[in-house]
Structure prediction request, 368 residues.
Amino acid sequence: MSDDREYVTLDDFEERALARKDPALFLQMHSLPIFIDEVQYAPELFSYIKIAIDNGAEAGSFWLTASQAFLLMELAQESLAGRIAILHMTSLSQHEIYGKGDCVPFSVELDELKKRKKINSPADMNEIYERIWKGSMPGLASGKYTDRDVFYNSYIQTYIERDVSELIDRVDKLQFADFVRSAACRAGQMLNVHDIANDVGVSDETAKRWLAVLEKSDVIFYLRPYSNNLLKRTIKTPKMYFFDTGLVAYLTRYSSPEILANGAMNGAILENYVVAEILKTYYNNAKDCLLWYYRDKDTKEIDMVIEGDGVLHPLEIKRSVNQNSQIIGAFEILDKGSVPRGKGAILCMRPDLSAINADNFIVPIWMI
Prediction:
């Protein structure tokens, strides 16, 4: 990685005007390697970046970022197909904020779990809920902004004014803000589009379109239910999560970590936090993650199932410190399917790594 990479932001109106009016001159004015931020404001650049790559620019010469990720991906896939790697950059992970050293994708293998003990910062239940409540936005984590409520209020307003308004013609901005709040109240739960639509007085179809905007913007993501041809009674409804739990806590009006830890959402938001943190460990290593949940019509449920290397790793999320072997009983459901079951884990508030047996570990949430 070069230390002399030139940085240009198209938030600068003069740079933006030049990039749009004369993209060839814009690239001549700046040296490679280059980091161009808010590149979605000058789609004219992409054809010229393609030419530069085809003329021999070294791999990694162009780093392109955008707050409107969906526009960046559309432009890049149209103009730079086969020439780019697209990386998801969500809000920060707990390892990035509180840990040290390199972070690797979360794995339910004992040697890998033991390594995580050395790079992550221990936290008890109170501190975990403080992390959840504070959120993981870079501006807050860095200390650049100190008033959490003002930050999130501004974030929502800016997101709707700048991003949502470009995607939804004549959107009612106040109604959309209520919509995001209604979705936040259901974080970590099975998606019920009709209930969210009813909350804000829009049709189910409108709610579906608006949820698609939140997903494209990397505000929310879904866990799909795991199923295969031998598991006949599984349900089909996904579960919805937010990448940043601080935004959820703000939108649901929890005024402190202590109130959140004892409130009605304490279990759902903890699950949201754990699922998002596991996903971030993969995104931050530029890797895909086959992450599911399991629930069938007999209400048997497994919070998460990681699929990798031809096996399934079942995970349960628990708020308590002490765990027992009965909790992993649901894992046996997966044995009825065609994909073999691997190591499993209970993710909980226990302070240290432990095990129920050789195949099922007890993993502190701070170790993710």
In short: The chain has a mean pLDDT of 93. Residues 180 and 235 are 25 Å apart (CA to CA). The longest helix spans residues 148-167. The radius of gyration is 22 Å.
